[in-house]
Every structure is written in structure tokens, then in C-alpha cells.
């Protein structure tokens, strides 16, 4: 055994997931530099309607959304969880600046690169906007931010990121989030809606093979960072969608009986056709979203839809 190896949360989570039965990996680890690049391509591919639908909502209805928050009286404070490249949020920020003239934007993202990019680009793109980026885990960063922000503030959780939790986990997440908010604060959440099952399945099985590459990249990341010897070609990308539960789940299926060896000498055995559960992308009905708001202790204020009713950004008040 190589004794110079240090434990990292990534190593611990990967080995825990691959030693479990059934095997799983955590989808938050998709996003290394190559994963970010592939996700960018997925968002632009014809089958992945989610990004275009939400961009349409924010480009056409940001004024209406902000009106429902009382126009964010005076200057505004907007916090974003999982800000990404901010390309859709710009619509909302531009409209808020048009209404108020000045305000503060607090993007939170796990990636320091994203936070640097947003801090550099947005203040020039949107004069009057102060950008205070925070790189780290959502709740740790919200803790730091509590003393800085003024209420009522608007917290954004866009892009159907909530879908990467199961509904019970989402309810717990929103309950915990509420402990960082004050009465009168608003939350805008992007949900992907239940729809024709084939449309959903196609979004997670694009013809170009980008989603397949996105999943297989996690095996390559494990090879790169944990010295494993996965052969990605020996795994098949297998997404399924259950129209009743609304869960779209992605698996990698081992094409043969095989073993993978890590640099700490850990050996993981795979049977032929054995799955690794990679990700859930949960879809909701309007009723389920309403029930989730109430369960987590928020007051549903309004819901905004794209023209095809594929996606919704819902506004809740604390
Ligand atoms: C980030 N998240 C909302 C995406 C989704 O739709 O679940 C991640 C993704 N996975 C495969 N394609 C996109």
C-alpha cells in the first residue's frame, strides 16, 4: 500500500459509494474542469430544453418577478446559490438595476474560478451592481453572509439544481435554508416540470453523447485524482425516467465482470450488468411544488412559466 496518500472527502465519498450495495457515486463530483465544459455543451444541445426554457422565463418575466417581491424597495440584495456562469441571472440583475439603480449581488458557488469570473465580468457589464462572491458550500457561505445582507432579500436557486436531490432531501434542504433567511425574504426556485416522458429521457440521452461523456468523465476524474484504473469504455450510460415518481435517474452499467484498482490498493469488483447509480434529476408537477413549499414552511407567492410550460421559476416568501 502507498502510505503517502492522504484522505480527501472525494476519496472517502467515492470509496464509500463504490463499496455500498447498490453502488453509487455523488453527482456533485461531476463538476471538475472537464465536467464544467461538458455541462456547458449539454446546456446548449438541442435535447436539453431546461436552460433555454428558464432563460426565456428570466428574459421576459424578470420585471414581473421583481414586482411580486415588492419591487425590492430601495436598493436590492440578491443572493444566488450555485451561481454558475450567471448567464440567466443577468436578465434579473439588469431588470433590478433598471428598477432601483443600484444593488448588491452575492453569488455563492463551490468553484472559486466561477466566483472570480462573475466578480470580474458582472461589475463591468452591469454598472451600479456591487458583486460580493463567495466560494464554498451553500450553508457555510450563507452563515458568513448573514451579517452582510439586508432584508428583504431575494435568494435564487435556479437551473433545476433542486432536481439533483430526491423530494425528501429537497424538503429538508429548504427547511435548513429557511434558518438562514428572515421573515419577508423571498426565494426563487427553478423546477423542471413533469412532461412527455420521451422528451425528458432524450434530455438525458442526447444524440451527440454529451451526457454519456459527462457521466463517464467522473470515472476518468477518479482515475486522474485517485489513481484508479477504470476503463470507461467498459461502462454503458443508462438513463431511466419514471413518469409516476418524476425521477429521472442515470446509471453506468458495467458491460462485463471487471475489477478496478485504486492507488491505495483498494479493489472494487463489478459483476457483468451491475449498475452504478450516478444522479437523480427530479421532475415535479405544479401541485407537488406547492406541497413542497408548504412542507418546508414557505408561502407560495407566484409561479412563472416558459411558453411551452416545460419549466417553472416559483417565488416563495419566508
Ligand atoms: C445541474 N443539473 C440541474 C443538471 C440536471 O438536469 O439534472 C445536471 C445534468 N445531468 C445530466 N444533464 C444535466
From TrEMBL:
Identify the InterPro entries for this entry: EgtD, EgtD_Methyltrsf_superfamily, MeTrfase_dom, MeTrfase_EgtD-like, SAM-dependent_MTases_sf
What's its EC?
2.1.1.44
Where does the Histidine-specific methyltransferase SAM-dependent domain start and stop, copy by copy?
10-317
Q: Write the record's keywords in alphabetical order, separated by commas.
A: Methyltransferase, Transferase
What GO terms describe the biological role, i.e. biological process, of this protein?
methylation
The record ties this protein, via Pfam families, to: Methyltransf_33
Protein name stated in the entry: L-histidine N(Alpha)-methyltransferase
Classification of source organism? Bacteria, Pseudomonadati, Bacteroidota, Cytophagia, Cytophagales
Q: Which gene encodes it?
A: egtD
Amino acid at each position: 500500500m502507498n502510505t503517502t496518500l492522504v484522505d480527501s472527502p472525494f476519496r472517502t465519498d467515492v470509496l464509500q459509494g463504490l463499496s455500498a450495495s447498490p453502488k453509487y457515486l455523488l453527482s456533485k463530483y461531476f463538476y471538475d474542469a472537464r465536467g464544467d465544459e461538458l455541462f456547458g455543451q449539454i446546456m446548449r444541445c438541442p435535447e436539453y430544453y431546461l436552460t433555454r426554457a428558464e432563460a426565456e422565463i428570466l428574459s421576459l418575466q424578470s420585471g414581473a418577478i421583481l414586482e411580486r417581491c415588492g419591487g425590492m424597495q430601495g436598493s436590492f440584495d440578491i443572493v444566488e446559490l450555485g451561481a454558475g456562469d450567471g448567464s440567466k441571472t443577468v436578465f434579473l440583475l439588469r431588470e433590478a438595476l433598471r428598477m432601483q439603480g443600484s444593488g448588491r449581488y452575492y453569488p455563492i458557488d463551490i468553484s472559486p474560478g466561477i466566483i472570480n469570473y462573475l466578480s470580474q465580468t458582472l461589475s463591468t457589464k452591469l454598472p451600479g451592481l456591487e458583486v460580493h462572491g463567495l466560494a464554498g458550500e451553500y450553508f457555510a457561505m450563507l452563515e458568513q453572509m448573514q451579517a452582510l445582507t439586508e432584508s428583504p432579500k431575494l435568494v435564487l436557486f435556479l437551473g433545476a439544481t433542486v432536481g439533483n436531490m430526491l423530494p425528501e432531501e429537497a424538503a429538508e434542504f429548504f427547511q435548513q435554508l429557511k434558518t438562514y433567511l428572515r421573515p419577508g425574504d423571498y426565494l426563487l426556485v427553478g423546477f423542471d416540470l413533469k412532461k412527455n416522458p420521451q422528451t425528458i429521457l432524450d434530455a438525458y440521452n442526447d444524440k451527440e453523447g454529451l451526457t454519456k461523456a459527462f457521466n463517464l468523465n467522473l470515472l476518468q476524474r477518479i482515475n486522474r485524482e485517485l489513481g484508479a484504473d477504470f476503463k470507461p469504455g467498459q461502462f454503458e450510460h443508462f438513463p431511466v425516467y419514471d413518469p409516476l415518481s418524476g425521477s429521472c435517474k442515470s446509471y453506468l452499467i458495467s458491460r462485463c465482470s471487471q475489477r478496478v484498482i485504486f492507488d491505495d490498493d483498494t479493489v472494487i469488483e463489478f459483476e457483468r450488468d451491475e449498475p452504478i447509480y450516478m444522479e437523480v434529476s427530479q421532475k415535479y408537477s405544479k401541485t407537488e411544488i406547492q406541497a413542497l413549499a408548504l412542507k418546508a414552511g414557505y408561502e407560495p407567492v407566484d409561479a412563472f412559466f416558459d411558453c411551452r410550460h416545460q419549466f417553472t421559476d416559483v417565488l416563495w416568501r419566508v
